[in-house]
């Protein structure tokens, strides 16, 4: 009889006692009790591996599995068994490294990652061609953001076994991270052909994500729908479809061919999918963030904050921690609790310095508190990341103009005015004629005692405003 794929009852020979005992895994106590039960008996490594799998999978207790596997490594076993034991121990440490309850404890996380690395390396020394060891090391390198070395490990595994699915998943992740979406799509499709019934993980999720990045939106939806057909309890598919529903619902552009009724229908469908995902896994931080986003769209901020506090508790990666802080900041910003907004914007970029939306919000808080130079530095960073962003450019122009005419240091003033001129000139092209920038430019030239250019900027402002109003009037 078995529980899942793990045999429930096993017979274990005890060499010292010269007898055989029958163990029902369901009746096992804690790992400590199991270790004490066998005392000084020397049992084969394969039995310790069996117990560890039971604790890890059925009991969902990786900590106890580690204790069992550490004892197992002291037992007799073949090279293959020892390699399997080391790989399982490394995988368990890596699982603990990613577990939500350890995310706030950096020292423990680092310890788990070091242990996982050491055990995978030991397994590789025993058998350099062991596929699990190679893929495990690849995943470790991905966790360390060493994409090049991770790619080498996955490639080594694929040279040994070209159709080894875990290595193909690793390769697809790297291709996706490099924005090689066509290549990643082909790899995910290859996985789906190799194992059409695979749902954990589901290659259709990767297929849908790649299609979405390639602007093949209808096909992306079909891929996610197919994932749900194959597995109605697919949390990622429900979350991604809910995201699409919310994206349609929040389109506020009156020129979009989406009626209010359709937006409401999309919003309701999105909320239903999020609730379904949370019924399946109440601790899924990405689903909780999406639920909060749904409440945010309805301006139901108390509910949004409640969902986000739960998301913060269950955030299972640095990325999700950063995103949760950003969403909390956005909610507090909306209700004008600026101190808490400042706190969460700061922590979002402290965890993930590349979170541009959080950096934008942090810059806004700096302005509100009168830290104009610091705010200018933040918006400069954003401007260099995306020179064509009108919001960032407008704020940066205003900051430079303000500093240029108010700072007591002449060199600071001149640099700010030069920066203003440089940045505003980047938006001479027609499609970047922003009325806000025209207003600031008029002020800039007025302060510079250049009335001709000031009037020219005001005329441009008037022209752009009239064009905008005309479009609104004639647009059906």
Structural class: mainly alpha
What about the largest sheet? 2 strands, antiparallel
- Gyration radius over CA: 29 Å
Strand content: under 5%
Contiguous helical run count: 23
The coarse silhouette is: elongated
Helix residue percentage: over 70%
Instruction: Please trace the helix and strand order, writing H or E for each element.
Output: EEEEHHHHHHHHHHHHHHHHHHHHHHH
Distance from first to last alpha carbon: 69 Å
- Provide mean pLDDT, rounded: 83
Q: Care to count the β-strands?
A: 4
- Placed side by side, the strands forming the largest sheet appear as 1-2
CATH class membership of the domain at 233-369: Mainly Alpha
CATH-defined fold name of the domain at 233-369: Serine Threonine Protein Phosphatase 5, Tetratricopeptide repeat
CATH architecture of the domain at 233-369: Alpha Horseshoe
Low-confidence stretches: 465-476
The CATH superfamily of the domain at 233-369 bears the name Tetratricopeptide repeat domain
Organism: Rhizophagus irregularis
Pfam families: TPR_19, TPR_8
TPR repeats: 201-234, 322-355, 356-389
GO cellular component, one term: Cdc73/Paf1 complex
Give a written overview of the molecule:
One of its GO terms (molecular function) is RNA polymerase II complex binding. Keywords: Repeat, TPR repeat. This is TPR-like protein. InterPro entries: Ctr9 (IPR031101), TPR-like_helical_dom_sf (IPR011990), TPR_rpt (IPR019734). The protein has 476 residues and is mainly alpha-helical. Helix content is 72%, strand content 3%. Among the domains are: 1-76, no CATH class; 233-369, Alpha Horseshoe (Serine Threonine Protein Phosphatase 5, Tetratricopeptide repeat); 383-476, no CATH class. The strands form two sheets. It has a two-stranded antiparallel ribbon. Strands 3-4 form a two-stranded antiparallel ribbon. The longest helix has 24 residues, at 451-474. The N and C termini lie far apart (69 Å). Residues 465-476 have low confidence and may be disordered.
